[in-house]
Amino acid sequence: MRIHCPYCGTRGVEEFTYLGDATVRRPDPDAPEAAWVDYVYLRDNPAGPHPEYWYHAAGCHGWLVVVRDTRTHEIFSVRTASGGAEA
Amino acid sequence: MSSDRYSFLSVLREALRGQTGWKPAWRKADPQESYDVVIVGGGGHGLATAYYLARRYGIRRVAVVEKSWLGNGNIGRNTTIVRSNYLLAGNVPFYECSMKLWEGLEQDINYNAMVSQRGVLNLFHNDGQRNAYTRRGNAMRLHGVDAQLLDAAAVRRKLPFLDFDNARFPIQGGLLQQRGGTVRHDAVAWGYARAADRLGVDIIENCEVTGMRITDGRVEGVETTRGFIGAKKVGLACAGNSSRVAALAGLRLPIESHVLQAFVTEGLKPFIDCVVTFGAGHFYISQSDKGGLVFGGDIDGYNSYAQRGNMPVVEDVCEGGMALMPRIGRVRMLRQWGGLMDMSMDGSPIIDRTPVDQLYLNAGWCYGGFKATPASGLCFAHLLARDEPHPVATAYRLDRFARGAVIDEKGMGAQPNLH
Amino acid sequence: MNDLSTSPMSRTGHAGKTQPMRLARGNGINGDTTIRFTFDGRVLEAHPGDTLASALLANGVRLVGRSFKYHRPRGILSAGPEEPNALVELRDGARREPNSRATVTEVFDGLAATSQNRWPGLKHDLLGANSLLAPVFSAGFYYKTFMWPASFWEKVYEPIIRRAAGLGRAADDADPDSYEKATAFCDVLVVGSGPAGLAAARAAAGTGARVILCEQDSLTGGRLRAEQTVLDGRPGWEWAQETEQYLRAQPEVRIMTRTCVFGRYDGGCYGALERVADHVAVPQAGQPRQRLWRIVAGQCILATGGIERPIVFPDNDRPGIMLAGAVRAYVNRFGVVPGHQAVIYANNDDGLRTAVDLHDAGASIAAIIDSRLPSSTAAQVTARRVGAPLFAGGAIVKTSGHTGLKAVQVRDSAGQTHRLACDLLAVSGGWNPDIALATHHRMHPVYDEVLNAFVVSSVPAGLHIAGFAAGSLTTDAALAQGDALGRTAAQAAGFDAAIGPAPALPRAGQEEGYAIAPLWHALDRGAAKQAGRAFIDFQNDVTAKDVSLAAREGFWAVEHLKRYTTLGMATDQGKTANVNALAMMAWERGRTIAQTGTTIVRPPVQPCAIGALAGTHRGRHFKPHRLPPTHDWAVETGCVLTSNGIWQRAQWYPRPGETSWQETVNREVRSVRSSVGFCDVTTLGKIDIQGIDAATLLERVYVNAWRKLPVGRARYGLMLREDGFAFDDGTTARLGENHYVMTTTTANAGAVMRHLEFCHQCLWPELDVQFISVTDAWAQIAVAGPRSRDVLREIIDDSFDLSNEAFGYMGAAHVRLRGGVAGRLFRLSFSGELAYEIAVPARYGDALARLLMRVGAPYGITPYGTEALGVMRIEKGHPAGPELNGQTTAHDLGMGRMLSGRKDFIGRVMAQRAALSDAARPTLVGLKPVNAGDALVAGAHLLPRGAPASAASDQGWISSSAWSPTVESWIGLGFLCHGAQRHGEIIAVHNPLAGTVTEARVVPPVFVDPEGSRLHA
Known about the structure:
Helices cover 10% and strands 38% of the residues of chain A. With 87 residues, chain A is mainly β. In chain A, strands 3-4-5-6 form a four-stranded antiparallel beta sheet, with no helix packed on it. A two-stranded antiparallel sheet of chain A has the order 1-2. In chain B, α2 (44-56) packs parallel to α6 and α3 crosses α9 (369-386). β16 (332-344) of chain B pairs antiparallel with β31 (608-609) of chain C.
């Protein structure tokens, strides 16, 4: 598997560290505890396209949002998590 | 006369008449209109659940529905290791219950699953690891589980060909559970299937669950590719795909699906007698009764339903193998495969009710489900029959995440790919 | 017929009697040179270009191995990697390679091959007696017995089974050869160099695309070398050779022979194994034995050809029974005629060509058995040409010859049987396209009723299939398809397919009929049931009857069939067996093959040495060594090193006369506590944090408050994970208005960096803050002890006021060393003494250590290692890895009150859950043995005195322990239920692994200077 880092170009998956689902949003500090439980523990875990966080540990240290099909490992898009560059 | 009871005599008798008297290992059942319990997932856990429901709890109107062929999931894709060398109080009694069930399994189900208690040896390479294994081994002993702490000399006597002298991380010793070992994985599925079948359980293959019929918060049955099947209770035992099936009931789970690769070499004359795990890399190995080295390592680390992994992990695992036992350099890896792991948020399983009435969940086995098969089946059967957790599975509640009562053996927190 | 096949070839003169089956010529053999090898100790001759199989056949050796279960005598079935029978051990000792296929082993001068899985010898193998028990040893019989009594499995049955298990023996010792890994990139990867592959590579290269052509064999050409195909009036293999030369001259083409593409992975990644030095006795100095290639390809063309199927008939496994296509390969490429008297048995026209090639090579053809009725015109023509009887609609019902074929019994279409003496039977049940690589992504092939084989129905993006692998039946079709797909692939990779004039494609022109009629068992069902064993999976001895039994017992699904009978599980992965077995199952159940299932395979396509997959990462090079800046100096002093993650650190510094590590460590601790010592703490993670929002970020990642930390001060901080459990700790110093430097634990340096970047980039990208890891940039040395200030005065420039008043505990400052080096000074203490950490650019670390030794000499300065560091941190009750193990909370660590209630921070909400601060949770305590001499063992458990040794009474454990020379007692840190309320209580310390129970007193987790007066001195 290879990921196209917007900063570094296409690199082997071994350069990246995975975190998981990029659709979950950290709740407001005042949100009820249930919202935090959801955020920390519950996942859609879909079979299909999955936006997910990858960290380019052996490269630019950028956190990326990669949309990847969990059934085929095909990658549809990559963008930086901070909302900048898109590959 | 058919030969239905397996024995030395029945094997001899069949040998004399060309093996023509054997009955199918299990009937190819068609779905009935309804059952007391429908179990979703014809893998080890589902089949064991059905067996214990019928055998120990007297519930025989049971169907196991399997979307593909029986045993297509992790029961047939694992590295066959059984052990109960856990640390935490939430886990040890459960896995020890499983170990005891393994020890009597073959006579119980009349099927030789080749439970082989050859020992599981976890190597350690520094003082910190030794201390952690000491804590674990002592926890096991306090729970009445066997454990021994070996020093480097004792490990050398047992496995003289490990890299003791030139290693990057020299071996200091190991924690040995002699009662651990391996079990012929497919035979577990077939044995439970056969035993459950003889007790009246319907095993329905090629029957995929496509929906749940839920009325007023209560499950009434499952929609399948072979029609609706009514059920008083539905139990999900489809680890790897738990999230997908639970989603049919509107549930989100504290689980990610990940791929774990495993490997087998060509058959070799036996030279590795026990299961060995490397403490300085992701590598563990045993040798099967056919002679193949069965080995594995870490999960690939990303969500996947693809049942296959990638090269970096293959290389990482083989690097561990060569670092630990450089003698296997010219041994050839014959086959690699991937299984889907229900990686839970604390690395431990779930056996519990769900927010949907009469819908029960058995999930989150991470890469440790095989060894748990008998106890998982027993405890899930207990829960389905009695509506309360089995005494050895009281920690495996779904609400433990919300409560913070997690069972985190590795201390990795809510990040599944690190467990 | 072309000029190569004129008249029977004469036997070669120079090989003499030693190679009785050798012909004058083979297109892949250098007959001018003779080399020697041994098989089971017997010295034999061969030529360069031979495989072990061809060389054995040339020498008339037919019995090569024994099967797995029944130890049936076996010979050579194939001429390629699909070989199930001819497995041998190559070389010996540490270089022994078990299960090596003779058919792909290149012979070199001095090669030693040994038969395997037999005792005492190949010809007389006592375990051949297993064959007598075949009626018992049916598929899966072991699941039905060996269960009584339960304890007998490990004690009796399994040891017997394991004694018989396995094939060859693994090497005796560590592999002495080296391996390496390489990565290659290309636009078009072509797998296979037969006509389709060569045409594809040529066409793709013509567009300017970067092309890699991989061929598992030592020679390119594929079947062009095995057949007598004529292209434009010349031997096909000559065209292959020319095309290879042409391709090698192209600037963007790389041809890799002896390279098997074994796996297709995601994103256009392919794994390939190059056998660099397997065809020589020992690799040259510096040369790897094999090289693992990771090939990243934009497009891939599979031109992998096909694998021929055997025919299932009784006793179809004797040495001398070979695949027809393999026989042609031995004749045409290797110049070996595998028998004098041959019978051909086929269900297709392709197999019949074998009769012609053998006949032209001088063998006599005893009969042609064509299972088809009526037989084809081609069969009739062939039979006439070779002067052999043709049995149209015939079947072989029996064979004889224990260790080598002697005769076959043929049943003609009228039901009459005929005994035909022969020493070679060439069989062809048709060909399977080799689509293994295409199925690695779990794509299911479909059954083609015309081809009678599985083909790929829809090709995944980036993959193309050409030649016979795609069902192209003739050489011309393969060439044309390869050519077209070469262009298509290049175009898909972004190249202009129109450019690039390649030489014109050659043409074979002749009709190459196939005309296959399915034949899944030589006999009808009734007869098959009565007949002897007909093997499907040769190596694992799976027979047609085993498939019947599997059907009877309900193991219909292909995967059940495989797993129950072990079909396809042998070293050849069922390459010659799987389709026959599937067809047999369909036959048993009266279903079509399509209804019965399909087979997919998993990587690797061919078995791969574990050493090659590991590459250079073994022994000391398993993981990198990371060395602190004072490493060289420390080694010079004779320190003992320890691994701390991948770091190598000084564990202690023994002095002459010291007799134990304990003595050394005690001295180091006493020196620090009484005078001064120093320790390299560079390994702690150091993260430089800058930006106007730096303080805001610290507030959010640490549990405690940071806004009011003044410039020039440091503070201890605790980080949680978002789930509320403790993550990491360390100190962070404020060096400027918007400039902080954070330290992390050694173990979590990378994880904390990643975490900070996550918090910034994913959670709060609006914050103006930047991070960089400076762990390697700064050498950091702790100088600790009551005389540390005195030592530093010798080092730090006079302009800096080191007095307690000016630079108190937790001070942080930019400093200049005497001589001008700019550094940083922190007044931090892990030891609990007056202490500093001094940081200088890493290149000065070594000099700083030497300087400290010199200027500290008057004070008796003592370097100390990780062991003394650990003793002193336990004496002070500082948590480290064993306490911060990811399972503990701030409450457990006695830091519950650090959690700020006035701000949001990572882990805040989840940490507030009752379960994380439950009073019953084990919390950090100190422990001292009641008898000072009783060792406290980390990992021992804490139980109430007098309670039974059981889990129900388990209340905690010891996480860290040490002998404290300061307290003159063993001391420990541990976690105990209600620990904070139990100071003074005596509890039992259980270590059942060691068989000990001792007693210890629960004390506060600080053993030395609880008031902290030394810190502030």
